[in-house]
Amino acid sequence: MDRRMRVAEALLLVIIFINCRVSAFVAGADGPVTFQEALENGNTTFFCDATPDTSDDELMLLVWYKDNESIYSYDARVRTEWSNIAFNMSGRLIADTGKNPTSLTISALREDDEALYHCRVEFLLSPTRNTGVNLTVTVLPSEPFFLDELGNTVTNKTRPYYEGDTLVLSCLVIGGRPPPKISWYSGETLVDATYSVSDIPNVWQNELYLPLTRDNAETLSCRASNTRLVPALEASLEIELYLPANQVKIQWVQGTSDGVLRSGETVTAQCEAYGSHPPPDIIWRLENKRLTKHSNQTWDISLQAAVSFIQITPTIADNQATLTCEAVNPIMPSSERNSKAAVMNLNVTFGPKVEIIKLDDEKRNEVVELDPLHLKCDVKANPPADKYMWYFNGMEIKPGGMWGDNISSNELFIEEVSKRHAGQYACAARNTIGETRADSISIIVLYPPECKKPSITLNKETLNCNVKGLPVPDTYFWHIQQIEHDSQHLTTGSSSLSLDHVAGPLSEYLNVSCEAENGIASQYKSCTKTIGLGHLRPPQPHQCDLAFEYKEFQIRCIPVENATHYELSLWRLSKTNASLLLDRKKSIDVGNSLALTQNGDEPWLVRGGLGLLNTGDEAGAAACNRYGCSAALLLRPTENLLSAAVPPWWKFLTERDTGISIGVVLLVIMFACSTILAIRLARRSQTKPQVPVIQVLQLDDVTRDYLNRTGDIHVHPSCSLRSNSSDCTDEQDNPSLVECHCAHTSHEWVPPPDVTLTLQRESAV
Ligand SMILES: *[C@@H]1O[C@H](CO)[C@@H](O)[C@H](O)[C@H]1NC(C)=O
Ligand SMILES: *[C@@H]1O[C@H](CO)[C@@H](O)[C@H](O)[C@H]1NC(C)=O
Ligand SMILES: *[C@@H]1O[C@H](CO)[C@@H](O)[C@H](O)[C@H]1NC(C)=O
Ligand SMILES: *[C@@H]1O[C@H](CO)[C@@H](O)[C@H](O)[C@H]1NC(C)=O
Ligand SMILES: *[C@@H]1O[C@H](CO)[C@@H](O)[C@H](O)[C@H]1NC(C)=O
Ligand SMILES: *[C@@H]1O[C@H](CO)[C@@H](O)[C@H](O)[C@H]1NC(C)=O
Ligand SMILES: *[C@@H]1O[C@H](CO)[C@@H](O)[C@H](O)[C@H]1NC(C)=O
Ligand SMILES: *[C@@H]1O[C@H](CO)[C@@H](O)[C@H](O)[C@H]1NC(C)=O
Ligand SMILES: *[C@@H]1O[C@H](CO)[C@@H](O)[C@H](O)[C@H]1NC(C)=O
Ligand SMILES: *[C@@H]1O[C@H](CO)[C@@H](O)[C@H](O)[C@H]1NC(C)=O
Ligand SMILES: *[C@@H]1O[C@H](CO)[C@@H](O)[C@H](O)[C@H]1NC(C)=O
């Protein structure tokens, strides 16, 4: 056995020797050549087909050569392997002949392993088979690294640049075989592949000149590659590029629907600012006014944006205001280029704000009659008001009538204002938010003075011009016409005119006209009226009597109110016929009628001398003032009074000093006579007068009773004496035919025997 082994080894050496001699391999001529690449320090596997062409053939020997030097052999006959010890240092050769094809793996490859390898297979029958492998061992370069233009290394991040700056940067690698390609990439985009050998041996570089933009300044990378077996070696750099925000978004995020705001309701807006480096400062503005109460700004990583929120509560004034969100780069020098803004207009909706405005006139609330009235409903509303309503004195104005048909708009136009249009006006407007009614304004219609009814009145002694007008008239023009008198023109500042200011007798009636002025226009038609003044005359005196005093007849009257003087008349009975003729007339001034009660209970009397009266004569007294005289009260002296006026036959006695005794006797006789007379009078009347004068008291009652009782009266008295009694009715003008129907007949009054009433007579007869 030992022997056989030794033989076999000897044989193998022979074969190897033979092999070595014939190891020269000519590529292409001796067999095919494949190319194979492997990395330094890596491994590679060569394959060699060792199956015989025919089944009766058999493998004898398999040998691998590096160039012309054998590095491995396998003797199939004795199944022994051999390896070149110099090549199989550290056991880096591994062969596998069991498989088909057979393989030979070399690991821990070195640069000098690069060579042309070939495999020679010997068969028992078949010819020798050669297969070549051209192995390239690639040496990877170092990791790329960066140098700036000053030769400083740059790691991870460049120095800051502004957009538009040109980046100058070199990417370098050391070593590598074959020489590596060096390329610059921005992201995945190749930006520069112009590599070259550097000044330093065994160093390759690629110098980049890159104008920086927002798009190419993403991560910048340098790739170095000299084989396809492994990915390129890559080093990347972040470019510190200061960029303004390039996109700013503003939007409502809370409190609105469709961006419609309500005044007074709080809403939240969000602002997102993209593209700024470093993160921007977000500034909020509302219509150029900076808002500070916004949220803290945050950086949203998923959005890569700065985010800020703001809450605002818009008012009506903010409608259509602009909400601005501006992103300002805090590092870039301030200029237009360092910021970007987004704007949003606020659509603040609100119910109408309504106010009435009077157009076309400087006077705010006044309009002159017949002028136009133009009111405008001034409405601020969002959305705009779509309906207007007008109100007059609280009632909605309906078209038609005094309003015309054109009232549904925001303007109310009345072409010719009348007094009916004075009042409170309001308008209301409606939009989708609500309805609002304005504060009403009061419209005053001014108009020139016009007469009221009655147009002129007399109150006591004052004339009143009854006109209405707005403003209240301040000047009144009076025209007063009296019979047989020039017309008078007076001006007053008020509507009343005292008759004191009217000159003239004022005895009958006045034709008065008045006209007022209030600055608007002159009165269209003056007021006129005929004013009777008869009622201003004093009442008829009705407490008068006749007396014989101071050697003449006197008519004495208790003064009546408002009389300034009295007219006394004396009527004489004609000697030839029965008519009375006016003999004398005189006026007595009584001065002030306030002196009515001068001496306490004693009435103050108006008295006038009449001279001597005869039987049938009459005296009359009428009370007068500037408006004329009352009817006269006529009195006729009785026989007793007349006889009392005759001087007594014994008068001469009194003229002498014939002694008091006669006087005493006469007094006794007179006492007796007067006693008798008193007894006679007492029989006829309870109210006998004390003195022989006519007493006329309560003349109307006297008259009536007297008429009823006596048949021998001379004249019927007139009931018109009862100027104040409504119980009597004047049927005719003739006072002598008056019939009186008086209600009060209970008072039984027997007239004194001395009284004779006469026909009432007008003094003017
Ligand atoms: C050869 O290299 C490959 C990867 O390149 C590895 O998986 C393998 O184990 C290596 N073989 C040897 C024998 O070293
Ligand atoms: C292999 O060939 C080279 C030239 O090709 C020669 O110089 C060298 O001596 C040879 N080596 C052997 C072992 O034959
Ligand atoms: C290479 O050497 C190692 C140990 O030195 C050995 O185990 C191996 O078999 C050798 N390779 C071949 C192909 O002979
Ligand atoms: C092996 O390949 C290299 C590169 O491809 C080439 O330069 C060389 O001439 C080749 N060698 C042979 C023997 O073909
Ligand atoms: C560069 O980046 C790496 C990994 O991100 C880090 O470990 C290293 O410290 C950085 N170098 C510098 C100078 O910042
Ligand atoms: C903003 O930040 C300050 C302090 O950084 C903090 O006190 C405050 O509560 C924050 N405000 C909001 C709205 O987050
Ligand atoms: C505001 O919002 C209202 C209600 O949606 C709408 O009618 C109106 O047209 C808007 N105005 C503007 C200016 O957008
Ligand atoms: C209604 O009044 C308005 C404003 O006064 C005016 O412009 C318009 O012509 C009037 N329309 C009619 C039908 O009178
Ligand atoms: C007063 O007016 C009436 C009617 O208007 C007229 O008949 C009369 O003559 C006038 N009198 C005077 C005094 O003018
Ligand atoms: C007197 O005149 C005044 C003022 O005019 C009046 O009020 C009064 O009634 C008159 N008196 C009589 C009795 O007529
Ligand atoms: C009565 O007499 C007077 C003269 O005494 C005379 O004037 C008058 O006309 C007479 N009247 C009658 C009606 O005869």
Automatic annotation (TrEMBL):
Signal sequence region: 1-24
One cellular component term from this protein's GO annotations in UniProt: membrane
Keywords for this protein: Disulfide bond, Membrane, Signal, Transmembrane, Transmembrane helix
Classification via Gene3D superfamilies: Immunoglobulins
Family matches, as SUPFAM superfamilies: Immunoglobulin
Protein location: Membrane
InterPro entries: CD80_C2-set, Ig-like_dom, Ig-like_dom_sf, Ig-like_fold, Ig_sub, Ig_sub2
Boundaries of every Ig-like domain copy: 32-136, 144-238, 244-345, 352-442, 462-532
TM regions (residue ranges): 660-679
Keyword flag Disulfide bond: yes
Topology class, membrane: Single-pass membrane protein
The name this protein goes by in its record: Ig-like domain-containing protein
Organism annotation: Parnassius mnemosyne
